[in-house]
Amino acid sequence: xxxxxxxxxxxxxxxxxxxxxxxxxxxxxxxxxxxxxxxxxxxxxxxxxxxxxxxxxxxxxxxxxxxxxxxxxxxxxxxxxxxxxxxxxxxxxxxxxxxxxxxxxxxxxxxxxxxxxxxxxxxxxxxxxxxxxxxxxxxxxxxxxxxxxxxxxxxxxxxxxxxxxxxxxxxx
Length: 172
What we know:
Blueprint: H1 2-33, H2 37-50, H3 55-67, H4 71-84, H5 89-101, H6 105-118, H7 123-135, H8 139-152, H9 159-171
Helix pairs in contact: 1-2, 1-3, 2-3, 3-4, 3-5, 4-5, 5-6, 6-7, 7-8, 7-9, 8-9
C-alpha cells in the first residue's frame, strides 16, 4: 500500500510539474508579446528547469535575452536550441541575428543559410542575409537575397526598399 501511494505521489508530481511547465511556457510567450522580456526570461528559465530538452523554450528565452541586449546569453540559448533540435530553423535564424548584431556578418550569413536549409521558404532569413551582405558591401549577393525575400513575401515592409538600395549600390 505504501509503495502504491508513493507511486501515485510521484505520478501526481510529474504530471503537475509538466502542467506547471507548460503554463510557464505559455506565460513566457505572452510576456514576450507584451514586450516584458525580463519576466519572460524568468518564466522560460523555470520552464527549462522542468523541461531541459525543450528547444523551443531556449529559442524563446534567447529571443527575450536578445531584446534585452544580453547577447552572450542569447547566443548561448540559440546554440543550445540548435544542439537540441538541429532540424529546426529558428535556432540558426536567431543565432544569425545575434552574430549580425555583434558585427560578425559572414558568420551570420552562414547561420541564415543553415536556417534556409531547414526552411527554404523563410523570407525573413533571405531578408536578413541580404542585410548582412549589404553590410559587407557584397551588393550582388545582397540583391539576390533581397529578390528571394520579395519573391517569397511581396508585402515585406522593407525588402523591396532594401533591394532597390542594393541595386543602386551595385551600379556605383
